[in-house]
Every structure is written in structure tokens, then in C-alpha cells.
């Protein structure tokens, strides 16, 4: 089953798991130790992250380690980029408007001083 990456990152616990594992590979117990919930509950979150491709579980001896595979987050980045561009354009236009308005105000003040 392949899950939607947006649903996976919608949950704060899963985002925190990603954050933990993004920095270093951790075994399942080490991940669970960071949360105030049962190990089965953490395992469910890990399963969802694995199903959407954000985590990979690797067996090393008797332990299972979680490793981040953050390529799927590119989908989120691409989606958010369109809105970043939109708001950048709007804010640039606002800046241009405010600069023009300030220049006009300055010109009016100078004209009034001369009168």
C-alpha cells in the first residue's frame, strides 16, 4: 500500500519521527523512547511513514533500524513552491507600491516647503 505523503506529514508525531531519523539512523526502541505513548502506537506511525516511502526499515542482526528517505518530501516542496512564488510576487508588488507611495509623499512635502 502506498500512502499519501501529505497525510503522513500531517501528524505532528510523524513529523517528529522524521526529524529524529533524518539526523541519524535509529532502532525502533530508540525512536519509541522519544515519545510518551506505547511502542505499538509508535510502530503504527513508523508503518505509515514506511508505506509512504519516508522511512526505510533495515534489519541489522537482531535489531531493526529506521533510516530516512526524504525524496518523497520533494512532492511537498514542489506543491508549496507554487504558493511561495505567488506570495513573493504579491509581496514584491506591495513593496513597489509602498516605495512609490513614499516617493510621492516625499515629493509633495518638498513642493509644499517651496510654497
Automatic annotation (TrEMBL):
UniProt-listed InterPro entries: ArsR-like_HTH (IPR011991), HTH_ArsR_DNA-bd_dom (IPR001845), WH-like_DNA-bd_sf (IPR036388), WH_DNA-bd_sf (IPR036390)
Residues annotated as domain HTH arsR-type: 1-88
PROSITE patterns: HTH_ARSR_2
UniProt entry keywords in alphabetical sequence: DNA-binding
Superkingdom, taxonomy of origin: Bacteria
GO molecular function: DNA binding
Matching CDD domains: HTH_ARSR
Keyword Acetylation attached: no
Protein name: DNA-binding transcriptional ArsR family regulator
UniProt-listed SMART domains: HTH_ARSR
Source organism phylogeny: Bacteria, Pseudomonadati, Bacteroidota, Sphingobacteriia, Sphingobacteriales
Amino acid at each position: 500500500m502506498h500512502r499519501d505523503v501529505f497525510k503522513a506529514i500531517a501528524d505532528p508525531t510523524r513529523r517528529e519521527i522524521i526529524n529524529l531519523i533524518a539526523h541519524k539512523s535509529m532502532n525502533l526502541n530508540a525512536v519509541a523512547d522519544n515519545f510518551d505513548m506505547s511502542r505499538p502506537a509508535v510502530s503504527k506511525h513508523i508503518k505509515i511513514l514506511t508505506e509512504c516511502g519516508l522511512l526505510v526499515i533495515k534489519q541489522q542482526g537482531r535489531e531493526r533500524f529506521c533510516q530516512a528517505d526524504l525524496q518523497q518530501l520533494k512532492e511537498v516542496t514542489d506543491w508549496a513552491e507554487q504558493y511561495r512564488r505567488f506570495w513573493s510576487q504579491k509581496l514584491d508588488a506591495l513593496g513597489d507600491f509602498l516605495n512609490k507611495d513614499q516617493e510621492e509623499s516625499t515629493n509633495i512635502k518638498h513642493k509644499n516647503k517651496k510654497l
